[in-house]
Amino acid sequence: MTVLSRVRNAGLLVRFGVLSLVLTAGLGVVIGTLRSNAIAESAREHAEWTAIVTVRLGLQPQLEREDLENGFDPDRLAHVEEAVRSAGDRLQASGRQLDDLDPVAVKIFNRAGTIVYSDDHSRIGTQSDSDDLRRALGGQVVSDIEGSTDDSDTAGAPQVLEVYVPVQYDGSDRPDGAIELYLPYAPVTAAVQEEVRMLVVMLVGSLVVFYAALFRIVSRASTRLRVQTEELHASAERDRHTATHDALTGLPNRLLLRDRLDQALAAATRSSAEVAVVLVDLDRFKEINDSLGHSYGDALLCQVAPRLAEVLRDGDTVARLGGDEFAVLLPAVDGVAEAEAVAERLREALHRSFDVAGVTLDVEVGVGIAVSPWHGTDSEALLRSADIALHVAKERKAGAVVFAPEDHVAAPSRLAVLGDLRRALDGDDELFLHYQPKFTLDGERIEGVEALLRWQHPVHGLVPPAEFIPVAEGTGIILRLTERVLGLALAQARRWIDAGHPLPVAVNLSTRCLLDAGLPDLVQRLLAEHGVPARVLRLEVTESAVMADAARCMDVLQRLHDLGLRLSIDDFGTGYSSMSHLRRLPVDELKIDRSFVLGMTTSAQDAVLVRSAVDLGHNLGLTVVAEGVEEAEHVAALRELGCDIAQGYFFSRPVPAEVLDVMLAEVGTIHDVDETVTGPRSRRRPRGVERVTRIELALSAWEADVLPLNYTRERRRDYLPVPPPRQPPPVSGASRRGTRSLPSGASPPSATGP
């Protein structure tokens, strides 16, 4: 058993060697045995042939049929004995080599089985009942090996070959008798042994050569197989590593992280432990790729990985989920507090500067934390909770955020909003525009309008822009949405042109739109489709949108400007553009952010900022527009500063085109084709209560027709024009606008859309 166990535990080549050796030896034994039997049978047949020759040539010619029937008289018996002795001499004289097979004894039987002659004369006349004799008398040559010449087995006696040869004379239909010869078997045995020895030598030599050749072939094949197996194992290990690890950083990927998280959660269930998942996302990583190249971004990611690992324990896992997002698995933590402490250490490690090919880079990160079982009991739920917390951290610029159940409510709705918005874009009856007019400060006429997108959801009613515009800006759907807004705005602009009001319409552009090199071609196509002059369309961009990728945005803006469009810098003062960048931008208009305008009458700092912005815009040759004008005091202050255009609730909220048509008929624009419309107000338009009444009747009709019955008053106030309950103080003609001022304490909507 020990040998067999060792053989079973040995290598493949050793096992084959032992097994093939045993099989080869067994094959040799089988072949040797078969061949030895064949040699022995051949020697026996040779001995039989010798006996037959002896009888046929030596004895039978000396006998007569009467001798077999009647026996021999003494003279005849002596003659037979002489014939037996001389048979060998005659055979040798004829070239037969029978010295080794001289008969030891001879018996002659008649047809009745009686011995008529024997070397032992005492046996003459006796009867034999041997089966071999009966077969010989039947005509067969029968041979057998005996231990003596008297048919008795004498232990230790030399063996002899007993041969019965039938004797048949002419005219007989069956043998007349038989002669029994006893030949010495020792020569046969010696011949057999010699031939077997030669056979064994040849067989062993052949099998040794065969085994050596076979072993060499198998050894080489085994070596190649072992090498191939090792290569396959190495390849499989590489494939497994590739499938479970990130190619760039070598960190575990999402697949391996999920597997380890499943194991950690299973172990935590048995031990009532807590498992934490921390997601880390680099801020502004795209800017590094765009400004320095992807090689720098890749090098930075390779440095981030060891930074994260150096502050963790041996059992913790750092994984890269893709892009600039990493995940940290803490399989055992002592509550949320420890997870927050680890997250803070991770943030501190990443806040240290990185040296990438001689360039010093500083990065900020957002961190989302989720801890089981409080934020999920399976890997899918825990990763989802951490992802939601990460998005909250990035939106709020809060650093590290622990998942809160209230954050989970908003996250799925973003997906639902995105899906509903796609379906709205496929239809024609949900998305529409409202227009907020911009008034001149040196008179009371409309200078232009800003197109603001609205969404009438078939189930949820009117959806505030703040609930779907940010969602669209985070995906490529903002490009389709901008194309829809441009189409609707240009169609309405065409209708106003046909009515004699070539009113400029402004449309907001997001960062994604500015980075789209095909935007100028799209705008040119839409202008041609609607037959609108380029000067009627204005495009508004923010400072931050332009600075996201200044080179690409400048190219797109220049191409738009070359089409004849007017461009505006929106929300000026909230970005971080330098004066040199502002000077190079191909813009025609500067819009001061509403946050500064709202505070200019109460804050000296805001007043200084507004004054500086007005002066800067004028010095650069730009038209200056003040946003967020809600009080008569704002109008008076802006007039004093020399601001050109004002936009805000003091004049009008965003309204449908039908309501704006009434305002155009009553107020007029500085671009009207009919000069009488833009002449002295006393000549053409009703004044005072009559003019205000017509506008308010239009607003009331729009409110009744457009808004759903179940829409709450709190949400309606974000979309309806302001009623005229309050008159502002009379400041250089502003009292006539006071009928449309914003009530004290009212706040504008949080977002107005693109």
How far apart the termini lie comes to 86 Å
Overall radius of gyration: 59 Å
Strand neighbour order, sheet with most strands: 13-14-16-17-18-19-20-21
**What structural category characterises the helix and strand content?**
alpha/beta
Q: Biggest β-sheet: count, sense, barrel?
A: 8 strands, mixed, barrel
The chain-level mean pLDDT equals 78
- The count of helical stretches stands at 26
Shape: rod-shaped
The percentage of residues in β strands lies in 15-25%
Percentage of residues assigned to helices: 40-55%
Low-confidence sequence ranges: 95-99, 674-693, 704-754
- Give the tally of β-strands: 21
Structure description:
Helix 2 runs antiparallel to helix 6 (186-244) and helix 8 (285-292) packs across helix 9 (294-309). The strands form 4 sheets. Strands 13-14-16-17-18-19-20-21 form an 8-stranded mixed barrel, surrounded by 5 helices. It has a 5-stranded antiparallel sheet with strand order 2-1-5-4-3. The protein has a 5-stranded mixed sheet with strand order 7-8-6-11-12, with helices on both faces. The protein contains 26 helices and 21 strands. Helix 11 links the parallel strand 11 (365-372) and strand 12 (400-402). The protein is an alpha/beta fold.
